[in-house]
Amino acid sequence: MISKKLLMLLAILFGMSITVQAQIVTDPEDEVDEEDEIVVTDQSGKEEVIEFPEAMTYDLDSLLNEYMAKTYLTSNDCNMKNENPYFPEEVYIERLSRMPTIMEMAHNNVVQQFIDRYASRLRGTISYCLGAGNFYMPIFEEALEAYQIPLELKYLPVIESALNPKAVSRVGAAGLWQFMPSTGKQYNLQINSLVDERRDPIKSSYAAARLLSDLYKVFGDWNLVIAAYNCGPGNVSKAIQRSGGSKDYWHIYPYLPRETRGYVPAFIAANYMMTYYSLHNICPMTSRLPAQTDTVMVTKKIHLEQIAKVLDIDIEMLRALNPMYRHDIIPGNSEPYALRLPLADVNRFIENQDAICNYRASELLTNRIQVEVNDYTPTYYHKSKRSYKKGRKGRFGRHSKARRGGKRGAVRSKARGGKGKKSKGRKSRRRRR
């Protein structure tokens, strides 16, 4: 017997599937770059085109241009040859089997295609993710542990966002975990014109852990969970039904949307590469951990530039520490909001809060609280009396008179019981006189 709590959870998740599905909708007329797809040939020689995760197609230069990468990541050659060595299939199978995971990390031709792509064309992106992982993996692990979720799911944001907290997909999913707006709101992430908590690494990680936990209560299989995370639980349930009721991801594989067919293989390949990168001569970018930070609650409306100028802090650093503020404005006057600062600057902010709030406030915070209505009564030019009379004799006057006369004629005709023709005749005789 299914409990009421589980039924409510199912209703929420299946309602959510409509919006999550938006992540996989593509226009069939859109041209797909060869870099954005993988072609797999099965044993019968039939070719299948699988869409590559959008995040893994991001330009590496744009990722390296983010503040955290520019400031804390540097290239490192590790004295390795920049080439991908050949290994027989048995080696990949054995390595995957040795990974200490709860989730099934099976090998097949599809998974191998993704590993090959990561180890060749996307070597730079893997190197970047290995370096950036030092910023975010501890946050992911803490959130996943809080909900007793397998820690290998910490690599899900690698294929979701390439570890870019400001990533926005072509359909509007945002943040490290790529929440759609409606899904984010269902998991208590605040989204409005000024604040988008999907971009907050900590809050979005705990929301994602809750979502993954809820999906596992429905499907009971982690591969199906991450498939549902990508295309929505409704699509996964349809695939299960069409396959005859199987709950094996690889069995329902043909019935899933095209992008989701590549999603689980991409995830397995990402786990493999983040574990065995050195065996493929991939050198992680060297990361220098940022200074310790802490948060302070803001109860006034403040612009990040006010903080940067008064405390002499790099505004790009403030933006990197507080990616949830979309236009550099903290709307603390509506409710308290957290501001993340370097630990050494927290007390300075508290001591100088009045000076910060007053600095160029009228220039940076331009929305007015109260305005006066202009009560001036303008005077308009009126036509002279003569021209007005002339106008009445013109076309407008004749038409109005005709309409009024026609109405009176109709009334008189109706009162006498006559027809319109008689009325017209009477008018004609009147004119002859």
Explain this structure to me?
52% of the residues lie in helices and 7% in strands. It has helices spanning 4-20, 60-64, 67-72, 89-98, 109-119, 123-146, 156-161, 181-186, 201-219, 222-231, 233-242, 249-252, 258-276, 304-311, 315-321, 343-351, 353-358, 361-364, 385-393, 395-416, 420-432, and strands at residues 37-41, 47-51, 73-74, 286-287, 293-298, 301-303, 329-331, 337-342. The N and C termini lie far apart (99 Å). A hairpin with a 5-residue loop joins strand 1 and strand 2. Helix 1 crosses helix 9, helix 9 (201-219) crosses helix 10 (222-231) and helix 10 (222-231) crosses helix 13 (258-276). With 433 residues, it is mainly alpha-helical.
The major pleated sheet works out as: 2 strands, antiparallel
What's the overall geometry? globular
Looking across the biggest beta sheet, what order are the strands in? 1-2
SS-based class: mainly alpha
Order of helices and strands: HEEHHEHHHHHHHHHHEEEHHEEHHHHHH
Indicate the low-confidence ranges by residue numbers. 17-33, 388-404, 418-433
Rg computed from alpha carbons, rounded to a whole number of angstroms:
34 Å
Number of helices: 21
What is the CA-CA span between the terminal residues?
99 Å
Whole-number mean pLDDT: 84
Residues in β-strands, percent: 5-15%
User: What percent of residues adopt helix (DSSP H or I)?
Assistant: 40-55%
Tally of strands: 8
